[in-house]
Amino acid sequence: MRQMILSFVMATMVACAPDEPSRQVTGYSEVEWVYVAAPGNGWLTEMAVQPGQRVNSGDLLFRLDDELQQAQVQQSEKRVEQARAKVSDLSLGARQQEIDTLRAQKREAQAALTLAAAEKDRWLALVEQRIASRSQGDKAEQEWQMAKAKLANIEAQIKVAELAARRNVLDAAEAERAAVEAEKRQADWQLGQRIVESKRAGRIEELIHHQGEWVNAGAPVLALLPDDGFKITFFVPEQLLADVAPGKVVQVSWSGQEKAQPAEIRFVANEAEYTPPIIFSNESRSKLVFRVEAKLQSEQRPAVGQPVDVLLP
């Protein structure tokens, strides 16, 4: 009798135990589109791709008119040349031709000083002999002093000419050179922005603008489906949350595909949500589930938005 009661209780517990959630869930495929925009305003002068064309990272997508940017680059190049020449000139001192001219003037001033000294001595001797007046002697001495001062002035000019510019003047010229070189780099960058290349490998899905049209900065020009932008989205109940950690692999199957394809889980939501309407069923309508995203590991893929079945590990 006791054995019969025990068997009845165990059967009742099994019958009343909650059903284990199915390890196969429903999901769908979706993509993360990349909309390539124009970095600046301008005319679309070249469209280098067509819908359905595959591109790799670095491939040319389109060009914008660049006459203004070309002119800015040329202008900045001239300013850089001028600034560098100014720094070089200040660093080296005066040109050799200028120094040679000053040295020739020095020789003339030395000769003039020698003559003025001789004249001064002669007139002073005549003054002492009372043959010439004192004023004539004073005039000769004054001319000698002027010739002496002129020679000293030329010698000072030569000394300055042989030296580089003062440190503060040279520092200002070097700062000006650095500023125009930065403007040149900015102009080069602006010119480079008129050529738009793909940053990711994938397939051109749609051309939003065409050659000859005017596009605004930030306006999408084309839509790209990147190779790594395709994902499988599905939802799991809390009981199976531990089985869908990032890095684990699930098996994905869909209509038209004979063999299930592996997909690596990349994302698991932290917060639960009600089952989205796209995968409502009588069994899951009122359940709270967690969103999971996985990347297919093979080249075989379902159509965008196609329902899929996901077998959990």
UniProtKB/TrEMBL annotation:
<dbReference type="GO" id="GO:1990961">
    <property type="term" value="P:xenobiotic detoxification by transmembrane export across the plasma membrane"/>
</dbReference>
<protein>
    <submittedName>
        <fullName>HlyD family secretion protein</fullName>
    </submittedName>
</protein>
<dbReference type="GO" id="GO:1990195">
    <property type="term" value="C:macrolide transmembrane transporter complex"/>
</dbReference>
<dbReference type="GO" id="GO:0019898">
    <property type="term" value="C:extrinsic component of membrane"/>
</dbReference>
<keyword id="KW-0175">Coiled coil</keyword>
<dbReference type="GO" id="GO:0005886">
    <property type="term" value="C:plasma membrane"/>
</dbReference>
<feature type="coiled-coil region">
    <location>
        <begin position="66"/>
        <end position="190"/>
    </location>
</feature>
<dbReference type="InterPro" id="IPR030190">
    <property type="entry name" value="MacA_alpha-hairpin_sf"/>
</dbReference>
